[in-house]
Amino acid sequence: MSLFRFTSLLLAAHAAAQKCPLQFDARVPQDFALADFDAPNDVFNSDFVKGKDLVFSEILELSPESTLFDVNTVPLVLTINDDSIFAPSADNVQTGFRRAELMAVSNSGSDDSTIGIKTLHFSLAKDSLRPLNLSHEYQLVFLESADFSTNQFALKTGTILGGNTADPDTLQLFGNINDGQLLFTTPFTDDVIHNFALKLDFEGLTTQVFYSQGAAALEAVTEALPNDVSGQGQFHFGLLKKPTGSTGDITKEGFQPSGINEGVLYGGIFEEDSTGDCISLSPSCNQSQRRRRR
Ligand SMILES: *[C@@H]1O[C@H](CO)[C@@H](O)[C@H](O)[C@H]1NC(C)=O
Ligand SMILES: *[C@@H]1O[C@H](CO)[C@@H](O)[C@H](O)[C@H]1NC(C)=O
Fold first, then answer.
1. How far is the CA of 158 from the centre of ligand 2 (A)?
2. Which residues pair with 56 in a beta bridge?
3. Which of 116, 119, 122, 201 could make an SS bond with 206 (beta carbons 3.0 to 4.6 A apart)?
């Protein structure tokens, strides 16, 4: 055995031994049926967020695709239609939005997923059969603070309200919306699965972005950028379609075309504990992030 081969084996053994502890795992087991999303289950909240007269089995599809971290698990296509009107209470009917979002069941808003240093993983892709309308702004993944006053980050696409979007067909990751800083952008290329990991330092108040496409391992695409991720809260994975032409309360006013059928594929949703710089860059290689500088 060559010395090189021997060293590689040692490195492989080291990487395999190093598992980052999972904070939550929202990858969907292969034996899950659509109806399982409608009743309390171990993966996603069965009540939120969706049109008040809809159940998740009506707006989800199990996908035959496979994403980077869906090794023995199943991605989903999440859809919105004209009935995707969320009503958190009887006098708060969000007619300005069309919404369908998944939330990991253990992520209560005050749990450990928003303290310490954690890395949030997810993959997403366009559904060619159910295109988005890029004249609108969509939030695709976001963290909403426990007091509902802000989003500490929001991955968006389309024409950003009040923004100056050069190309709406772009994935745009914003930091805390109070600051409006754009952390990372990449073209929302068709027929490609986009993989993200966001390393969220809830102590140092930074966000570092990792990204890849298809089966490629994640790579750091930013440094740890200052970003106010304080305030705990809940991660949302899905479509929050904002209206056009609103001059007031966008949750209730503005224009939403009717007859829509839009969807996005989501998979590989989990969060790991990145204490000690542990981060999974691919399913076979949960390696410690190489320390840069110092
Ligand atoms: C980490 O690697 C092990 C194999 O060494 C694998 O079983 C596990 O699923 C990986 N963790 C993640 C989050 O993919
Ligand atoms: C896209 O949205 C705009 C603004 O709401 C609307 O005018 C247009 O008809 C929509 N396009 C399609 C194809 O639905």
1. 12
2. none
3. 201
Q: What is the pLDDT along the chain (294 residues), one digit of tens a residue?
A: 444 444 444 444 334 334 799 999 999 999 999 999 999 999 999 999 999 999 999 999 999 999 999 989 999 999 999 999 999 999 999 999 999 999 999 999 999 999 999 999 999 999 999 999 999 999 999 999 999 999 999 999 999 998 889 999 999 999 999 999 999 999 999 999 999 999 999 999 999 999 999 999 999 999 999 999 999 999 999 999 999 998 899 999 999 999 999 999 999 999 999 999 999 999 876 554 444 433
Instruction: From 133, 138, 250, 253, give the residue whose CB has the most ligand 2 atoms within 8 Å, as the site to mutate.
Output: 133
Residue recorded with tokens 């049926």 = 33
Instruction: Tell me the CA–centroid distance for residue 257 and ligand 2, in Å.
Output: 6
pTM of the complete model: 0.89
